Amino acid sequence: MRKWAGAVAFITGGANGIGLGIARALARRGVLLALADLDAAALEDAAGELTRLTKVRTYRLDVRDRAGFAEAADEAERELGPVDLLFNNAGIVPVSSVADLTYDKWDLALDVNLNGVVNGVQTFLPRMIGRKSGHIVNTSSGAGLVPDANPLYVTAKFAVVGLSDSLRLSAAAHGVDVSVLCPGPVDTGILDRTRSLDSSVGIPDEHAPAVAEFLRNGPSVDQVGEEVLAAIEAGKQYVYTSGYDLRPQLEARAAALLSCL
To answer: Domain Ketoreductase, which positions (predicted)?
Structure first.
């Protein structure tokens, strides 16, 4: 059983959605929390809630900002201690038809959903290697395992799975474990936050109600938080959230890959 109490966790996107669900689960176990998010009001609310359970520090951070990441990491470790749990969770759901793709849309999608994870890894991994301990959880998506028809999102999320798989193999020799979270539908408010960040990649109005209903049928963010921590305790490489059966699509994709051999 992992010892949680007194550990230090750094969570990007930690004031909203799945990040907040993970933070709540950690707080209940006595983990000290460094919450990073773009949403200053949500950070204030999260801190007000979670300080009743544990020590919390908040940092307004755009995960595309490498210098800001380093500053937040330094401050978190000064105030809370060495970070041994890193959750690279911040992300958006950019949407575009293939006919409307632009370089600007690609840059936004990859900078937040892929480079944001890379920046978190590169900020904290050398510190963890130096201490020969740590656990990194990178948030991908079910769309990082089986593609849908939205390449802006799928490209980055597949890359996060590949990054995490390779990092798990290479970091283990340094005492650092790596898992990848691949959520199915979860009602996190991410559609609205994506539109607020850049309306050009927001989900089209005509599709929004159906997608929102699909997401509401998944588990709560608090349930996901508990599932993530249970997976860490079990040493799992992949964390897939409950509530949606991806097995048929995974089996079809695996069969197509194996048919090439």
So the answer is: 7-187
Residue for token pair 């960040």: 197
Other CB atoms closer than 10 Å to residue 167's CB: what's the count?
18
Residues with a known catalytic role: 153
Sheet holding 8-12, edge to edge: 56-60, 32-37, 8-12, 85-88, 134-139, 176-182, 238-240
Radius of gyration of the chain, Cα coordinates, nearest whole angstrom: 18
Q: Which three-class secondary structure state does DSSP give residue 57? A: strand
Per-10-residue mean pLDDT, the chain, length 261? 93 98 98 98 98 98 98 98 98 96 98 98 98 98 96 98 98 98 94 92 89 90 97 96 91 97 96
pLDDT in tens, 214-242: 888 899 999 999 999 999 999 999 999 98
* Contact by Cβ (8 Å): 11, 17: no
State the chain's mean pLDDT as an integer.
96
CA atoms within 13 A on the CB side of 139: 27
Q: Cite the DSSP H helix spans in 83-115.
A: 103-110
| Domain segments of the chain as ranges | 8-258
DSSP string, 165-233: HHHHHHHGGGTEEEEEEE--S---SHHHHHHHH-GGGSPPTTTHHHHHHHHHTS--HHHHHHHHHHHHH
Asked if residue 193 lies in contact with residue 18, where contact means CB atoms within 8 angstroms, the answer is no
The structure's pTM equals: 0.96
CATH T-level topology, domain 8-258 = Rossmann fold (3.40.50)
Collect contacts of 204-211 with beta carbons under 8 A, ≥24 apart. Answer: 204/95
Q: What are the residues whose beta carbons fall under 8 Å from the beta carbon of 55, sequence distance 6 or more?
A: 32, 33, 80
